[in-house]
Design brief:
Number of domains: 1
Strand order of the largest sheet: 1-4-5-6-3
Mean pLDDT: 96
Largest sheet: 5 strands, antiparallel
Shape: elongated
CATH topology: Thiol Ester Dehydrase, Chain A
Radius of gyration: 16 Å
CATH architecture: Roll
Number of helices: 3
CATH class: Alpha Beta
Length: about 140
Amino acid sequence: MRCHETEITVRFNEIDAYRVAWHGHYVAWMEVGRNELAARFGLDVESLAAAGYLGPVVSLELKYLQPARFGELLTVRTTLRRSEVAALEFRCTIVGTDGKVRAKGSTLHVLTNLDGVLQYQLPPAIAERMARMLAWQEGR
């Protein structure tokens, strides 16, 4: 399966007193990867809003496996999980240049209209965009 790859270099301001990347920055790196992938298929914040929807985060999971260090080049690999409900689940794997996984995580975004009313069915315009992204991921 194909994934979107975003390169991130750990900056000095992202390390903590233990001289490793502070845990909160991994969430920001996941967001960069998610936004880049979503923008390719019209599922980014601006495109969703233009279509009449919002995608607030309702769940965030992150497992730290190895520390990232100052100056290290990381690759954020992002995919979208197939869903039949009105939600977007992005999965991320953050990998170092040595090929070892630094962290894995996911975010779950429900769909609401612009007034914040939860959508129970996937709107056709959003379903079509998701289908294009999933087809790209699956190499079709």
